[in-house]
Amino acid sequence: MNKRTVKDIDVYDKKVLVRVDFNVPIVDGKITDDNRIVEAMQTINYLLEKGASVILMSHLGRPEGKPDPKYSLKLVSERLQELLPNNKVIMATDVTGKDAKAKAKDLKMGEVLLLENLRFDAREEENDKDFCKELADLAEVYVNDAFGTAHRKHASTYGVAKLLPNAIGFLIEKELNIICGAIENPKRPFVGILGGAKVADKIGIIDSLLNTVDTLIIGGGMAYTFMYALGYKVGKSLLDQENVETAKQLINKANEKGVNFLLPVDYVVTPSIDDTTNYKNTKDQNVDDDYMGVDIGKKSIKLFAKAIKKAHTVIWNGPLGVFEKKEFAVGTYAIAKQLTKVKGTTIIGGGDSASAVINMGLANKMTHISTGGGASLKLFEGKVLPGVDVIDNLA
Ligand code: AMP
Predict the structure, then answer these.
(1) Nearest by Cα to 329 from 365, 362, 368, 356
(2) What are the residue numbers of the active site?
């Protein structure tokens, strides 16, 4: 990787504007998982140690372009202060308004200023020129360490980078090194596992993974569109009629490329997604008319586990069933467990599969759990992330 990192820039006595991903879950006024804050600390601590004053900016939730106290970063600033007992953490009451400007101007070496939620201003997601300039005017150097939003072309992830000397932070550097390293130069057999609900979202990634993997395992709601394309009955399961033809083409491509394309051979089915009593394992690959597939079945778990067992590199994105309900989470958990036995690299894309692995207490048994669902998918697909692309290369 030849992007400039925080280690390559002089930050002494400078105000450094850092895009972080503090989009943490908050329930009943409490942060329920502070992992994203913790993951950003390496870059923040490094900058403070090197004599910078640090201005942090992040989004939280979807406040739709206007201030909404429900999405304030106030709680995050309090957690940040706990993590930085020896540094003063100041919270701005706006994003680039009077308060942020005044507090940024007065910020001293070793101090941290957290701007209010970027998405309180509609210009953030529009990558608005004036907003980029207002952000850039707060500081002298820009660092992007928000891997979770690096696939977005927003003011704070993209536009502002063009206006200041710039670099990526340690978290983005780590994500790129691990994910790109594994995908560009995989130890084989290389197995990809894709699940989740929507085929449409994953067509690009399936298409590109078929060029590199040895085995591609498809589970979750999107499997049924492939099963339908192959002529099986899918009952009331998720089906994307518009992409049946595409599914056929992807199956053909897998055959042409000699990729072991593994679909479920049985499922857990239930009369409706909320019915956690009357579910059953199917005998074969068909789903009766009154049922819907909500998890991979026992035989499928065995089949998938056998392929994973042989792997030296595994990447995984998307749950294999409706894992939010414990009755339908068996397949997802069995596959997670199988991954812990892999003698090689295991990479979990962010989002639901990451939550499943973390909830099972298996996080430390994986090589890497990405902090970005959308961003890691883009990397799996071999795409460049705009928030990284915009950062200068090393001279
Ligand atoms: P995605 O955002 O596309 O990765 O989808 C994640 C969602 O897919 C989760 O909320 C799962 O509950 C859902 N999902 C997985 N398998 C199924 C299925 N068989 N039927 C319906 N939804 C599913």
Answers:
(1) 356
(2) 36, 198, 351, 374
Q: Do 192 and 185 meet the contact criterion of CB atoms below 8 Å apart?
A: no
- CB of 197 closer than 6 angstroms to any ligand 1 atom: yes
Each residue's pLDDT tens digit, 85-112: 999 999 999 999 999 999 999 999 999 9
The per-residue pLDDT for range 209-254, each reduced to its tens digit, is 999 999 999 999 999 999 999 999 999 999 999 999 999 999 999 9
Residue 202 shares a structural domain with residue 156: no
Residues 309 and 164 placed together within one structural domain of the fold: no
Find the domain containing 197 and state its range.
179-380
Kindly give the distance from the C-alpha atom of residue 132 to the centroid of ligand 1, in angstroms, as a whole number: 36
- 219 touches ligand 1 (CB under 6 Å): no
DSSP-derived secondary structure for 149-170: GTTS--TTTTGGGGGS-EEE-H
Pairing status of strand 26-27 against strand 166-168: unpaired
How far, in Å, is the centroid of ligand 1 from the Cα of 74? 32
Q: Is the CB of 321 under 6 A from ligand 1?
A: yes
| Same domain flag for 268 and 339 | yes
The pTM assigned to this predicted structure is 0.92
